[in-house]
Design goal:
Layout: E1 3-9, H1 15-28, E2 33-37, H2 44-48, E3 57-59, E4 84-88, H3 91-94, H4 96-111, H5 118-127, H6 133-146, E5 155-162, H7 163-202, H8 213-231, E6 237-243, H9 247-262, E7 267-275, H10 284-303, E8 308-313, H11 322-329
Parallel strand pairs: 1-5, 1-6, 2-4, 2-5, 6-7, 7-8
Antiparallel strand pairs: 3-4
Helix pairs in contact: 1-11, 4-5, 4-7, 6-7, 6-8, 7-8
């Protein structure tokens, strides 16, 4: 079965870099790996320096090695690569997946004499869904990627949206389940009314209306239910929280970890990114910053004593390109 690793946290802490680094390390280790960005502000393509779209595309990897630094556990050097795929989800493009559901509901309401425009029905449909379309698209494609047979990925790494979006993402299955159940019930009532009216007017010919939109609605709900099951399965899913050594980020990380645990989502590892470790000589301000970061990391280890805490040093410039990403991967356990 396909395993899944989520990276989440406050915006701007380096989730994309960590997701890309983990995916590259897994691919370097010979695993068939897919990394997916569900963050509306995509930067995965920048990290890997490739053009990406919503469809998974292969990322050519040169064999790793040639660096004196120690690799992360499970990421051997000099291993033939070429098993990395990547994709960036476009929420706007994914919206068309759900337009058919609202359109079908509008047709049923009109057939029963309820005069609502498509726009009005779409607003009603959206009213039962407080989460945004990007979270719905992420969950829908989450199942699609994990259940894909072509190719059959060993691991899917998700670069999720910032904390607020992430929290809604994990709320979405239950919320959408209720909304879809209500919509299905409404459609059933409307169709019975419409069917009786058509039969009275047109006789047996009234039943010759082919329509499988109900199956689409049911399939959509089933995918969300499977997504929920996968998200809370500790044998298949792990959520890794990324933070930085700053007070506000640590406070938000506490809220995120608490929320994930309430949702029974497995959280085992916390990544402290951009830790200032090597100040230049003769720079008192730099030394003070290193001490401050060291104190923050100690605070994080104490606060999250039940989690594995991994630190990633602050690097000069943007982390772009495979070699830069591999530099980060050497500090991140691949699995």
């Amino acid at each position: 079965m396909t395993d899944c690793i989520f990276y989440g946290g406050k915006g701007g802490v380096g989730k994309t870099t960590c997701a890309a680094a983990t995916a590259v390390a897994l691919a370097d280790a010979g695993r068939e790996t897919l990394v997916v960005s569900t963050d509306p502000a995509h930067s995965l393509s920048d990290s890997l320096e490739v053009d990406l779209g919503p469809e998974p595309a292969p990322v050519a990897l040169e064999p790793s090695g040639g660096n004196d630094a120690e690799p992360a556990s499970g990421s051997p050097t000099n291993v033939a690569a070429g098993t990395l795929w990547a994709a960036e989800i476009d929420p706007d493009a994914q919206a068309q997946r759900y337009e058919k559901l609202a359109t079908a509901l509008a047709a049923d309401l009109r057939s029963a004499g309820i005069r609502l425009s498509d726009e009005e029905v779409e607003r009603i449909f959206a009213a039962g869904t407080p989460a945004g379309g990007d979270e719905i698209a992420a969950l829908d494609l989450f199942v699609e990627y994990l259940e894909s047979d072509d190719p059959d990925w060993d691991v899917v790494v998700f670069d999720t949206a910032p904390t607020g979006h992430t929290l809604r993402l994990f709320d979405t299955p239950e919320v959408m389940g209720l909304a879809l159940e209500t919509a299905r019930s409404l459609r059933g009532q409307v169709r019975r009314i419409g069917s009786a009216a058509r039969t009275a007017m047109f006789g047996p010919m009234a039943g010759m209306r082919g329509d499988d939109d109900g199956d689409d609605l049911e399939a959509f709900r089933d995918r969300l239910e499977r997504a929920r099951e996968l998200l809370v399965d500790p044998d298949r899913t792990e959520f890794r929280v990324v933070t930085i050594p700053e007070g506000m980020a640590i406070a938000e990380t506490e809220r995120l970890v608490d929320r994930l645990r309430e949702a029974e989502v497995p959280v085992e590892r916390l990544v402290v990114n951009r830790v200032f470790e090597a100040p230049p000589e003769g720079c008192p301000r730099c030394a003070d910053r290193r001490e401050r970061h060291a104190a923050r990391v100690a605070e994080i280890r104490e606060t999250f004593s039940d989690l594995e805490v991994v630190t990633v040093p602050e690097l000069e410039g943007e982390v772009q390109g495979l070699e830069a990403v591999r530099t980060v991967s050497r500090r991140l356990p691949a699995e």
